[in-house]
Amino acid sequence: MARKDTAADAANPGRLKQIALTYKMTRRADKKIGLVLAAVGIVTFGVFLAIGFLIGHPIYLGILGLLLAFLATAIVFGRRAERAAFGQMEGQPGAAAAVLDNIGRGWTTTPAVAMNRSQDVVHRAVGKAGIVLVAEGNPNRVKSLLAAEKKKMNRIVADVPVHDLIVGVGEGQVELKKLRTTMLKLPRVLTGPQVTATNDRLRAMGDLMSNMPLPKGPMPKGMKLPKGGPKAR
User: Where in this protein does the record put region Disordered (predicted)?
Assistant: First the structure.
């Protein structure tokens, strides 16, 4: 029992430190985060306390309001922190790969299955919706990368649907912050065994990553491909 208490005590400072760090990072991009969180907490608590006085139970409603105020503040903080994180990642090479890595269970992602010397990249995700090719970079250049990769997928796994998305803020593109939601909304047409079989066939095919290791997440700006490396078809 003592060991469990000690472990819990050691974990609490870590969680508090993580929350503080997240708050500082969010505040860099969202200067009003403190005022917003304070307003949400005070208004939520105030509403329930007022209702408590009206119905003659200020203590009970006050306690409930306090708990719900903490909950509402935590939800708002989480959403604004996520929005700030996406804002800082927006436009960085490899940002879409970082989002795909955290899309959730049931998806297998492979970053940089196709790339050109201008750092336009196509990433691949396989799930029950089929194969999703996610491109980031110049919209005009990535279209040729996507077309070549879709042609390759249709040759190898012709019975699996292939979707393509371009990350960006222009017409017909998907914003980085909406990428995960967009992919999760795709219709599920494959079973678990079919997803496994598709991944096996793609692994057997191999891809760019097997020949040129790349760091996960956003890639450093100015990174150059080695001479003689793979070129976009």
Answer: 210-233
